[in-house]
Specification:
mainly alpha
Length: 92
């Protein structure tokens, strides 16, 4: 959490989101290493520097916190497009 990429995010992303993303990033690397050693092979060369882990965690936190809904323009010519949701119409 002290690395610059994560510190910069603290002004825009909640700490809990950054912390969860950091923990998941470390867990992902840990599983990769454990799987390789369980199979009796050397893990591929992995950069475990704090800077690299922080950068990946920061990207993950930004993706989590960014809105998933985006404005769209329905230019299909279809009034009720099923991929954009349906709008109930009055009987009149």
């Amino acid at each position: 959490m002290r690395e610059p990429p994560l510190q910069e995010l603290l002004s825009t992303v909640p700490r809990r989101v950054i912390l969860a993303a950091s923990q998941e990033t470390v867990d992902r690397y840990r599983r990769t290493i454990q799987q390789a050693t369980a199979q009796g092979r050397q893990p591929k060369k992995i950069d475990l520097s704090p800077e690299t882990l922080a950068r990946e965690a920061a990207l993950s936190a930004q993706r989590r916190f960014s809105p998933s809904l985006r404005p769209v323009i329905n230019a299909t010519g279809i009034f009720l497009h099923t991929n954009l949701g349906r709008v109930p119409l009055a009987a009149a």
